[in-house]
Every structure is written in C-alpha cells, then in structure tokens.
Amino acid sequence: MTASAGTIFSGLSPLVDPVGLFLIQALIIIAFSRALAAPLAYLKLPKVLAEIIVGIILGPSALSSIPAFANNVFPAASLPPLQLAADFGLIFYFFLIGVELDVRNLFKNKRSAAIVSFSGIILTFVISIGASKALYDNLMPIGTTIPFVSFLFFIGVATSITAFPVLVRIISEGKLMSNKIGQLTLAAAQVDDAFAWGVLIYIIAWINNTNNPVKALATTGCIVAWGLVLWFIIRPIFERWIRHSDSSDVVSQFMVFVTFILVSISASFASMMGSHAIFGAFFVGLIIPHGHGFALNLTEKIEDIITVIFLPLYFAYSGFNTRFDYLNNGTIWGMVVLVTVVACFGKIVGCMSAAKFLGLTVRESFAVGILMNTKGLVELIVLNLGLQSGVISVQVFTVMVVMAVITTAVTGPLLSIVYPTSLYGRGSSTSRLSLPPTNEGAAKPGSIQWKNHLQILVALPNMHVVPSMMAVSEMIQNKLNPLTIHALRLIQLNDRTSSLLMASELDQTLRNDAILNVFRTFGTLYGLPVNPLVAVSHTDEFAEYIVSSAIDTQANLIIVPWHPHSNDDVADGFEDDGLSKRDVAEAIVNQSPCSVAIFVDRGFGGFSRIGQTNDVVSQSVYVLYFGESGDDHEALLFTSYLSAHVELNICILRISDQKDPAQIAAAGASQITVNKDVGEDSQPGRIRSCTQIIESLAIKANVKIEDLTSSTPVGAIVDRLAGNLSHHDLVVVGDSNYKTRGGINEKKLLRNWVNRELKASSVVVSESKIIEKI
C-alpha cells in the first residue's frame, strides 16, 4: 500500500488499511461494550453480558446482516486478525483466572467441598445424557465426525462448570464471604473447576488428535506432567526469588518480564501438545505465589490492559458466532428450554442435596445450589473452545450461549429471594488478623465516655487520609486513658480482578495491604494497640460496613476522614473516595451506635509536633460551644482528650446569641447528661455534664475559655477567628450546630463556612442517634 492509499485525501476508504480497520473495530467494540455495561450494572448483571450483546448486535444476527456494514466495518478478511488479538487476551485472562484460584484453598474444607462439587457434577452429567442426545441428533451437522461420547462429555462440562470469578463477585456483594455458605461454595467451586478443566483438556486433545483416545491420553499426560514441573520445580524457585528480592517494589519490571516468558512458554507447549494454549497459561497462574502480596500486585499491573482492551474483543468475537437468526423454530427453542432446565436442575439439586447432607438448613442448601449454578464468562469461554475445536456446531453454540446468559442473569435475583440478608443479619462485615483487644469495663455505646478503655474505629479508604488519622489518633491518646484503634481498611469492589482477589483472600489482604501496614507501624512506634480490619465492597455500602464494624468492636468513637474538593455535588465539596458523598456521611451519623467525628484535613495530618520539645510550632484548637445539644457534649469530650497534650493551645468559644451577659452562664450551664451511671472524678471521660467538662478544662494551663455573644453568632465566629487560623490548626464543632447555625439574619451558614472558607482542619462531632435502641 502506498503512503497515500487508504487515506481521506487519497479518496480511498481509510478502512482498507488493516491496522486502521483493526483500531476502528476495537474502538467500536470497546466503546459500545462500556456504554451498554452501565445500564446493566444497575440491574446487577455482569459486564460480560454487555460484551456478548455488543458482539451479537455487531454480528450477522443484526448489523452485519447489512452488506454495506459487513463489507466495510467487519469484512470476513478482517476477522482472523481480530480473533488473533482476542485469543492473545484470552491466554493472559486465563493466566489471571489461575492466579485467582489459590490452590491452598482446595485443601480447606476439602471433604465438604468435594462432596458438594461432585454431587452437582455427577447429577448434571447423568441427566444431561438425554439432552445431549437430543442436541446431537437435531443440531449437529449430518455426517459429523465428532463422536457422541466427546459431545456428551463436552455438554456435561459446559452445563456443570461454575464461573469462579462471577461467583466471587456475587458472594462479595451478598456479604457472604465470611459466611459458612460463602466459604463452602468457594471451596466447592474451585474443586468443580479443577475437575472441569481436566476433562476439557482431554476432550480437546481427543478432537485435535483425530479422535484417537490413546494420543489424547498421551497429550493430557504431557500437559499434566508439565503442570507438575511448574508446581514442584518452577514454583519453589519463584517463591525463593521473591523472598530474597532486594527490590522495594514487590513486583519489579523484571519479574513481570519473567512471568510473561513463563506464560508464553507454557501456552506454546500446551498448543504444540495438541491442547489449547489457555491451559498452559492457566497452569502458570496456579503457581504464582500469593504470599507477600505478589499475586495481587502482579494482577494489578496487567489486569487493565487485558480486561479493558483484549477481553471485550474476545467476547464480542464470541457474539459474532452467536446466530440468533438460527433460533427460528419451535424445536430449537425447545432445546434452549431443555438445556436450561437440565443445567439448573442438575447443578442446584445436586449441590443442594449434598449441602443438606452436610448439615445445612434447607434455605442454606438451596443458596449453595444457586451459587454453584453460576455460569458467566467462564461458561462462554468453554463454549468458544468447543466451537473452535469443532465439538459443537454454531446452532448448539447459540443454544448454550442463551442458556449461559439466562443462568447468569437469574443467579443474583434468585439468591436474594431464597436467601435474603435478613436471614443471616448483616453478617461479618470485616475480617480480623487477630482477636480484638479486651475491652472489659467499656462504656455503654452512645458516648465517647468510657470506664477503663477507649475503643476508636478509624476509617481508611485511601493513603491520603493516613497522616491525618494517625495525628488525630495519637492526639487522643494520653497516659491516663488506654486506647485501642480499630483500623478499618475500606476497599472498593469493582470489575477488576485484583479487587476480587482481595475479597476472596481477606487474610492476605490484611497482612499485605500497604495502608494497614503503615498504620500498624505507627501503632508500634507510638505504643498504640492497632486492630486491623478490612472490608471489600461497593462504595455505597461503606456506611453499613463502618456501622457494623463499630458494633462488632464495641467502639466508643468513629473517626471518618473527608477531604476538601471544589465540587459541591460531593458532600459539600469533598473528594469522592467512597465516604465523601453527603448521604454516606449522614447514614454513618444516623445509624452509628456510638459518637462520630467527621474529620476534614487541610494539612493538619502532615504537621508533626506531638512528642517534640524543641523548635515547637504552636498548634491551636478552637471549640465552637453553643451549650444546647448532646453533640456539643461529645465535642467537649473529644476536646478533653486533646487537652492532655500541653503543646496544644485550646480555646473554647462559649457562644451565645443573647445580649444579656447574665444569660451566657445559663446557656453554658445547661445540664446535658450522658450516662449518668458513670461516676465523676478528675478523668475527663467520666464527667457527666458540659459544665463539669468545661470547669475541668479551665484549670489547665493550655486551655482558655472565651465568651462570645452576638445576635449573629456565625459572623462573630468568622470575625473572631479571621487571621488566627493556619492549615495546621483545628476547629471542633457539634454536628447539630454545624448543620443548623446561620441563615436568615446571618451572612452565611456555619456549615458553608466550615466546608468552603475555613483554612484550618475541622472535626464535626455527633452523638449517637440510636442510643435509645441500644
């Protein structure tokens, strides 16, 4: 092709250039898939369905039935390069699937997992004999050379396999990860897939070796032998290499290179032996070490290029092979119904019966059966392998794809009906690395007050909030009052394989998460007990996880970090990190069993001064006390902990909108009593009323009380603090006054000033809104 050929200025179609055509095809597939995935996400349907539907729309069932579209955008000559790119992505996706399957989990609950798995497989295989015969006689080409036995075993595998990646997502979203149902199902699914892939290796080897069972057995034996070499020779070398690596990066560029070489060699070997290249890549994924965070970090490095670019090409190409125009008579639709019923009945009833035998209730057993019937993208990959190998025809392929789509779509809704969350409560929202420290003598939930031990739950959605959370936690600690910090790491569950790895391996996540490790190190340095927790969920469930973790740990105080942002659509201007939306923060405050401190950091966390005696730069804490709410009471208690640090200059602004000074004292003396059964002494956490807290603070050298009276208190606060605040200072205010003060005769709302104009950091403290429910 000349330089001018195939360009706009040459007058020829740019689509005659193979590279340009491929890029246009990839752009159409990826863009359409992403656009369709958005509405399907609201229906809780997996993204793979969008990619399949796009392939069907672009394929001969729809747009490619138009000659102009097919000849220009997806001509027949362009499909082999598209398939080549798709297969390349599939090879590395199967490597990721292998990484996701931690072989060590096969030995956990191995007896129960094997019983559930093989019960579903055996029953499905038995009852699929009739369906396979019907499909073979009616939908396979006349005179086919594929033996019925090969066809039967393939249909048995396709109807009995469980899509592990989709299953992990469903279990995570259903908060069943630490539930006995979730653990049993995950273990059984891994046994299920190990058996299914083994059978599939043999079937494809049989077909590729001209239906010669001896050669097929030899091929399977060679591949299994290669797998053993990888496991017993290459894997130990890999692990030793990682342990002794001098690189600060867990997965260095060289390690990525070595992994790529291993995947390529293993995939090539499997292909040359007469099987499919994906099985070689899968075996390499199985040997990737999960310790030291290596598997997770490696996945994060390569998953996006595979799942965002190459995988949509594969499933779109799969959609091209799905011919809905072949579903043109009652017989074929009858086959769709038959195959769907057989797949669902065999898998659900078989696994359900085994689970009931193991002692689960009927509902729990039914839930196990439904989860084990999850199909999804792995099922579609199996079907494509069968089509490419010639084991099934295009008509059989289309029938099985419809079955896979139906079973994938109904799993989530059916599970919510059979086993709703109300049956098992909120479940365990977190996983612990160790048992929580003793909290004997802790106060009743609802106040920051305590008897012998203060429990604080700190939310950690990202690394940006760590400095401020460490600074606040260290400030609250003092010699008189022991403190335990429960550090809750919040990780967003999304479509990335790495998030599924973190969800399915919570223990590994707890040990290797960088944010938790930083917080643990901080606790060690400052003598603070830190109990690490982790929750992997969608961001709209973060509030629920925080509240349930506070209940589990019997926390007295929750500290939630927010960060400034210019977009008012996000929580009055805070960065969207999963906690910053206004309704999320409100849900935490309204549902919390204890006090909540919403912390806005504007540089406070990056300023080090605690424990220093030389060259100390003064930090100030201003408390906005209106004296008329339980939130103010908690704000004063919060301040009382900070007052133990003499380096802090604390000023309590006792604010009143009364012009008569005699009424100021009356406003400040309002008896807001919390936990009256707690005795009164010199410790700030045991003081019963706002007045007593203020009196105990007033005698300290680093605390001063200042009365501020005005008919426009917000304006008076702004004028008083103007020019006195810097980014490392702190303003503390009760939640009720933060939300309601200002407006009408005021120039501005207190809330708007704190969020948008305040230069210093701020803490908005709220008492529990459900004290009466505890």
Write the layout of secondary structure elements.
Layout lengths: L17 H25 L4 H12 L8 H6 L6 H22 L9 H30 L8 H13 L3 H10 L6 H29 L4 H31 L9 H20 L4 H11 L6 H27 L9 H28 L4 H11 L4 H13 L4 H25 L12 E2 L21 E7 L5 H11 L6 E10 L4 H8 L1 H7 L1 H13 L3 E8 L4 H12 L3 E6 L19 H10 L3 E6 L18 E7 L4 H13 L5 E9 L5 H7 L21 H9 L4 E7 L3 H9 L8 E5 H6 L9 H8 L3 E6 L8
Parallel strand pairs: 2-3, 2-5, 3-4, 5-6, 7-8, 7-10, 8-9, 10-11
Antiparallel strand pairs: 1-4, 6-11
Helix pairs in contact: 1-2, 1-12, 2-12, 4-11, 4-12, 5-6, 5-8, 5-13, 6-8, 6-15, 7-8, 7-18, 8-9, 8-14, 8-15, 9-11, 10-11, 12-18, 13-14, 13-16, 14-16, 15-16, 21-22, 23-25
Describe the structure.
The protein has 774 residues and is α/β, with parallel strands linked by helices. The chain contains 28 helices and 11 strands. Mean pLDDT is 81; it is low at 426-445, 566-575, 608-613 and 666-687. The chain has an 11-stranded mixed beta sheet, sandwiched between helices. Helix content is 55%, strand content 9%. The longest helix is centred in the N-terminal third of the chain and has 31 residues, at 213-243. The chain starts with 17 loop residues before the first helix and ends in an 8-residue tail after the last strand.
